Amino acid sequence: MLDQNTPERPARPNVETGLVKWFDQRTGIDSLLHETLDEPIPGGARWAYIFGSGLLFLFVSQIITGVFLALYYVPSADHAHATVSYIVKVVTAGSFIRSIHAYGSSGIIILLLLHIGQTILYGSYKGRRELLWLSGCILLALMLGMAFTGYLLPWDEKSYFASAVGTNLLSEVPFIGLPLQQLVRGGSQMGTLTVSRFYVLHVFVLPGLLIGFIASHVFFFRKAGAAGPIKEDPVHPKLPTVPFYPRQVALDAVFAVLLIGILALIAVGIPMDLGPAASPANTAFVPRPEWYYRPAFQWLKYFSGRWSLIGGILLPALLAVIFAAVPFLDRRLERRPWRRPISVGAFFLFLLTYVSLGVASYRADYKDPGVAAQMHKQDEDTRAFMLKPFVPDSAPGNAAAGLVAADPKVVKGLAIFQANSCGSCHGDGGVGTAAAGPLTGLGQKYTDSQLIAVLHSPDIKMTAGGMTLVDLNQDSMENLVAYLRQLH
Amino acid sequence: MEATSQKDEGPKAESSERRSFVLALFGLSGAAVGALLAIPLMRYVTYPMRKRDRDTAWSDLGLVQDFASLTAPKAKTVTLERPDAWQTTSSQTAVYVLPPKNGQFTILSPVCPHLGCSVRWVDAEDKFICPCHAGSFTARGERISGPPPRSMDTLESKVEDGVLKVRYQYFRQIVPNKEVMA
Question: Taking the model in full, what pTM does it have?
Answer without folding.
Answer: 0.79
